[in-house]
Amino acid sequence: VQLQAFGGGTVQAGGSLRLSCTVSGDIFSINVVGWYRQPPGNQRELVAIITSTDVTTMNGVTNYADSVKGRFSISRDNYYTVSLQMNNLKPEDTAVYYCNTIPNKSWGQGTHVTVSS
Fold it and tell me: Which stretches within the chain are classed as H helix?
């Protein structure tokens, strides 16, 4: 299984971005996917996870870090894509964003998000 994050960019504070995570390999073995981020000079942290409960409808249970709750939304759009909608972005959201299964497999390159004040 391989996961790769896309969609980063530079936005002003208050703006929005939608990140996409493409999944390849044994997609039916994936039940839990998380979005992580690593701010400059800091450790990688988990910001959102989705646990699939119905592979037909792509519904799932979601959880968020307190720092992004109410602003970020994770969804599994189909078997191959997990998205992270980020609204009302703040400068402290600046980081490299990654997606991975839980438990973690190998890490992709990540996608850079920069929020200017």
Answer: none
What secondary structure letter does DSSP report for 69? T
From CA 26, how far away is CA 81, in angstroms rounded? 13
Please give the Cα distance from 73 to 66 (Å, whole number).
13
- Adjacency order of strands within the sheet including 2-6: 2-6, 17-24, 81-86, 72-78
Question: How far is Cα 74 from Cα 50, in angstroms, rounded to an integer?
Answer: 7
- 38 three-state secondary structure: strand
- Render each residue's pLDDT in the chain as its tens digit; 117 residues: 889 999 999 999 999 999 999 988 887 777 899 999 999 999 999 999 999 877 666 778 999 999 999 999 999 888 889 999 999 999 999 999 999 998 988 898 899 999 999
Residue type, 9: G
Instruction: List, in order, residues 6 or more apart from 105 with CB less than 8 Å away.
Output: 1, 2, 3
CA–CA dist 25, 23 (Å, integer): 7
